[in-house]
Amino acid sequence: MTNHTTRLDHVVLWVADPVAAAGFYEDAVGLEPLRVTEFTEGKVSFPSVRVNEETILDLAPRSIAERMNMLPGSADSAGHPVNHVCLSLPSAAFDALLARLDAHGVPVTGIGHDSFGARGKATRNFYFRDPDGNVFEARHYA
Predict the structure, then answer these.
(1) pLDDT tens digits, residue range 2-16?
(2) What burial class does residue 76 get, using C-beta atoms within 10 Å of its C-beta: 0-12 exposed, 13-18 middle, 19+ buried?
(3) How far apart are CA 113 and CA 100, in angstroms?
């Protein structure tokens, strides 16, 4: 695999309730919440959850859409989630995520095999939705 210096820093998800979303990602997905207290105190515009040491998911409330003026039309993306975000996990973490989602009553698709991604074909994968309808894929490679 080529050693690239470009990495994915963050993905911004539109959510109805950022605190509830952070709770979902912490409890059901196992991600570390960031800046939740600061958000509830009004010190920051949104909280985040950590995917790994280099990547986070920002949980942006739809109410800030009108302030998204960095690019014409940015506010119009509120409520239009991306097709899906894929989390690549080691085998044991994949199984643990599947168990956590089941324990929280989160519906998941069947287990797929040989789905192509950044590292080639994944051994197993499945999809689930967060409470705001954002779609996630979980996968692991051999």
Answers:
(1) 566 778 889 989 899
(2) exposed
(3) 21
